[in-house]
Model the fold of this input.
Amino acid sequence: MSQTAANDNGAAALSAAETAFRQSLAGPMVANATVSALRAAGRAAFEATGLPGIRDEAWKYTNLRALARRAFAHGGPVPVPDDAAVESAAIGGLAGPRLVFVNGHYVAELSDLPTVSGLDIASLASLIQDPEAELPENLCRLADPGQHPFSALNQGLLEHGVLLRTHTGTVISDPVYLLFLSVPGAEPQTCHPRVFIDSAVDSSLSVLEHYVSLGSSQNLTNVVTELQLDRGSRLRHYRVQDEATTAFHVGGVFARVGRDARLESHNLHFGAALARLDLEVALNQPGAEVEMNGLYCLGGRQHVDNHTRVDHFAPHTRSTEDYRGVLNDRSRGVFNGKAIVHEDAQKIEAHQSNSNLLLSEQAEVDTKPELEIYADDVKCSHGATVGQLDQTALFYLRSRGIDAEAARALLTFAFAEAVVGRVELEPVRRRLETAVAGALPDRSLIENLIGADA
Amino acid sequence: MLSINNLQASVGGKQILNGLDLEVEAGQVHAIMGPNGSGKSTLANVLAGREGYEVTGGSVVYRDQDLLELAPEERAREGVFLAFQYPVEIPGVNNAYLLKAALNAQRKHRGEPELDAFEFLALVKDRMKLMGMDESFLNRGVNEGFSGGEKKRNEILQMAVLEPRLAVLDETDSGLDIDALRIVAGGVNSLRSADRAIVLVTHYQRLLDYIEPDFVHVLSGGRIVKTGDKDLALELESRGYDWTREAASA
Ligand SMILES: Nc1ncnc2c1ncn2[C@@H]1O[C@H](COP(=O)(O)OP(=O)(O)OP(=O)(O)O)[C@@H](O)[C@H]1O
Ligand SMILES: [Mg+2]
Done:
């Protein structure tokens, strides 16, 4: 039966990756019955569809051939990186707890977990072997395994990750830093961590998920994040994907936003040979709001695909989206942004924009903002642009004595800064600015710029 | 300082400048007037080195150098400044940053030490006061969301900070209210000196009440068709341009 499913996707036989995934899915049972049941459901969902192929509408522009060729190893021994390597990869200067994961595994020795009042932090791995452990009711319920094969796979292999829960009415000022290190082994590794954040009523929290490789890893990170925002809560979710340009990265962020709650999502990609991110936000109650900021800054032959979807299920909900791409060399970007305004979701606002800067003639982008509106009293806008640097602006800068290369770098930086500048965590913003600058020709000038507005 | 000889230039395949001659000495102020579309901005853009403006003949010598050989940024560093007729908005590039980068690029070129943040700020604040500009403009994107008049003022602020040797002001007076006009004129006058030259492109005689030119030229059909002193501007004001063309072709 599974064979047929694979054939439907055009593969003659199961790919090396899929064969390996299926073997991993058949792994041992765990003690916690809830986890076992979730795993079984994830496994069944994955086996029903297999890996997506380009005939799947949602994967039209992202070919998984390179990924599918690799038989990723799962669950091998966890390499222990030395402190210096970890610290140079990590973003320094952030107050608050830091949880470090190596190839998906939580590593306590590298982590720093001060008690934060009003916040519960638990490593998922420690709970699943405990038959008594109570898991969040909505764990694996915000991400639909039937819709997302990679989420199904992740759920089928549910083991590692973190659960965060705020207490009602607490404002947690220091961000929670989740550092996911991908470390190469003898063969490409895969990991399937899950992050579940429960923002309780009227609480406020910032979380940073940071994905980095140590060395030129060809690993596959397949992570799922679920965000539950209860009434009046506020969550700032930062996601920085800066893995090696040889790595594979698939992620899903699934959010449910309640009454008068506000999600701020920052999704920035610099790394990976191939990255795909699905961000889906359900605005479930009146007053729910989401702001989505995105940036992909690519070079070489990198391919990054962002699929975002907002469902306005309730009246008086609001979504804004600003995704930007800077594409150099032969890189390729894909943007698909959907906003769906459901029946009776009156008086909503949905604004969506995707702009792309192509720095080379070989760079490409496929962009498709989509609006589906089934209500009549709405304020919506959407648009996409693909272009080169503004020649008039270039000349203006040069006419003030700034040389052509530097002027180009400056304009590119400014373009990306519109997104990066919204990151409130200062050390993170600095790191992102450095990453943007690193992708540009005249780095020294930009470094000077980073210093200039301080 | 600037010697333009038989300059011919085309834009988008269309010949605009048709053998233009102009001599500007240090210490002088020249006003260029002329009908819409006669080529005034084309001249300004050719002097600044804008792409797409193709020089098809003639020469421009600036301080013993072939100006046309230089890249736009090199011209700027050599002291040529163009105040744009339509200043460009550059969101995300901070006004202060642009000023500092521009100033230091020139200083470096001249072998002078770059200004540090302190010295720079002191200088800019002083010039902003001169231009009657609020300091909040420093932290905004270059011309981003500026009103028409604010953009023009910002051009002159840049000029006042950069202290060019040759400033070409393309209709800096249009769009300014009466007070702003006086302020901008004050900014320009404060720059007047024996080793600088200013070329003003304008449609209005009124500006010349504030900035008294040594010469007034009429540019028409891509050439200078008439040159006089400040009284010529008054005469143009009352008689229009038609007669200058007739006089030129006669
Ligand atoms: N890219 C272009 N392609 C074709 N024609 C152009 C282009 N740019 C400018 N022109 C033409 O060149 C002529 C001269 O333009 P220019 O801007 O120099 O005039 P001007 O004297 O500055 O006019 P104004 O007083 O209105 O500012 C105009 O007829 C204009 O339409
Ligand atoms: Mg003009």
Summary: Chain B touches chain A at residues 48-51, 71-73, 75-77, 81-82, 84, 87-88, 90-94, 96-98, 100-102, 105-106, 109, 117, 141-142, 158, 162 (CB under 8 Å). The first helix of chain B runs from residue 40 to 48.
